[in-house]
Every structure is written in structure tokens, then in C-alpha cells.
Amino acid sequence: MTTDDRDTVSEDEGNLDDSGRASRSSVSGQGSGSVSGQAPAEGSEQGSRKKHLPVWQESILLLGIALVLAIVIKAFFVQAFYIPSESMEPGLVKNDRILVEKWSYWGGADPERGDVVVFEDPGDWLGADASSESPGTVKSLLEKVGLYPAGGHLVKRVIGIAGDTIKCCDDQGRISVNGVPLNEPYLKNAARCNGPMIGCHWTAGPVPKGHIFVMGDHRDNSADSSYHMCRPGQSDCVPGDEYVPTDLVVGKVFVLVWPRDHFGWIKRPATFEDVPDAK
Fold first, then answer.
1. How sure is the predictor about 153, in pLDDT bands with cuts at 50, 70 and 90?
2. Active-site entry in 87, 222, 225, 226
3. Which of 74, 156, 167, 252 is flagged as catalytic?
4. DSSP SS3 for 93
5. Which of 55, 115, 252, 267 is 20 to 30 Å from 63 at the Cα level?
6. How does DSSP classify residue 248?
7. What gap in Å lies between CA 68 and CA 245, rounded to an integer?
8. 21: closest CA among 45, 1, 3, 44?
9. Beta carbons within 8 Å of 80's beta carbon, 6+ residues apart
10. Chain segment 42-92, per-residue pLDDT in tens
11. Active-site residue 85, yes or no?
12. How far, in Å, are 76, 139, 144 from residue 205 at the CA level?
């Protein structure tokens, strides 16, 4: 996932004796006599043997099945990404490997406030270096089937959803959503306020329908929605560029898998529970 935004898942067979034939057995009858079993005919024995593909053909078949399963899992369930920058510190550190689940947004469901999401570049959020990837490499192939963390995406936290108004900041340096200030313990300590690189005095919203407003957890080093707002006197910006269309969202980050000492589940914080719906 990437961003260079400064912030981008043998069968057993019957045993034969040493001669290659089924073992003889005898069964005692109720009377004084006994009946001896007889071995099956050679032809029927050979016909009952299971036929197997050559090892190389089995290997190709298993590899094909594995690739199909990997593609299906990536398309509908889980996809791997990596963290390319410091924009989501301290929770997600550069070069961390994460997994994104997609089922939370099935059936037209949209991201919720507090979700950490991965999304495709809305068009101009990534730099030229992050957007240009060398095709035809083994890594690119593995990315396509979901066996290697994918790049070309961004990861941010959802701060506002459709209809929300976001304001920065109150006298304690907190961002407010729909008039409710957010206590955000997941943030990296900011020098000025919980607002970002553009300063502590701005308002965004209402967020358009079908869009979200996202920010990094390292507010002093995250080119997020606030960074892409049109500021007073700025003539080269596009109004509305700060909002991310929900149809670009790949899924929600749910676990940090690597390195091992960083492993942990990513959950939606309770911070947003008291935020009312937009009127």
C-alpha cells in the first residue's frame, strides 16, 4: 500500500504383504470345520490401485490452485500492504506489514469514523516517485496475486464521513467533528496542535456524500485531507480535492503482522463514539 505521501494471506492406501498380494486369513465356522480365504485375482487387484499424475503435473496443478485461491482472497477478503512513510506513527511505523480486510464494506457499507483505511490515490496525492513502479518484476507479479504487500496506495485514519464538519482547533489544540472535540491518544505528539502541517486554524466540510475526510496519526508529517484543502490566497488547488471517494477505499486495516515485535490488532478507537451524526 503504498503511499509516498510523506504521508503504500497424502492419501493412504491399503497395505499389501511382501508378495504384493492381499494377506490370507481364516475364519472359524460354528461347526467343527474351518474355511480358508483366497487371494483376489491379479487383474482385479491391479485395477483397484489408484492412478496418480506424475509428480511434476501434480505440482503444476497445486500451484495453479494456490494462485487462483490467492487471487480470490485478494479480490474479496484480505490484501497485504506495507507502510512506506512515517505519516501513521506511532501506531504504524515505516516498513511495517499490514493486512486489510474488505468484508466490512461489503453491500455498500462505508468506512466509519476512526477506521484506519487503505485507499487508491485520488489522483494527485502521491508523488511521482511513488506513482512510477517498474513493471514486469517478480515483486509486481506477487503483488497482483496478493502474495506480496502492494504499493501505490495510501493509509490514513477516517476523521469525517458524509455530512460531517471538521474544525481545527479548540483551546486545547483538539480537532472537533460536528462540534465534539476529539481526544486522540493514538497521535504522535504534535508541536502545536492536533491539526496538521497547514496549521491550527481551519474548517473542512460538510463532507460530500460518498466521500471521507482522512488524516494521518503523525499530523506534523502527513500530506492528508487537510493538506489538500484550498487555503486562502492559493490559486493552484482544486476545491474538493481533500475528500476521498469511498469507492477508492480498498478496505480496513485490521492487523499489523510484521515485524513480529510490532504484531497487534488494529481496532476502531472509542474516541469517536460520542460524535453525533451530521444534521
1. confident
2. 87
3. 156
4. coil
5. 252
6. G
7. 29
8. 45
9. 9, 97, 98, 99, 100, 146, 147, 148, 149, 150, 257
10. 555 554 556 677 777 777 777 777 666 666 666 667 888 888 889 999 999
11. no
12. 32, 40, 36
Domains of the chain: 55-266 (2.10.109.10)
Q: Using one digit for the tens of pLDDT, what is the confidence trace for 204-228? A: 989 999 999 999 999 988 889 999 9
Beta strands in the chain (DSSP E): 26-28, 34-36, 78-82, 97-101, 116-120, 153-160, 166-168, 176-177, 180-181, 202-204, 211-215, 244-245, 249-258, 264-265
Q: Is 219 exposed, middle or buried (0-12, 13-18, 19+ CB in 10 A)?
A: buried
Grid coordinates standing for 184?
486522540
Q: How many CB atoms lie within 10 A of CB 277?
A: 9
User: CB–CB of 43/110 below 8 Å?
Assistant: no
**156 catalytic per annotation:** yes
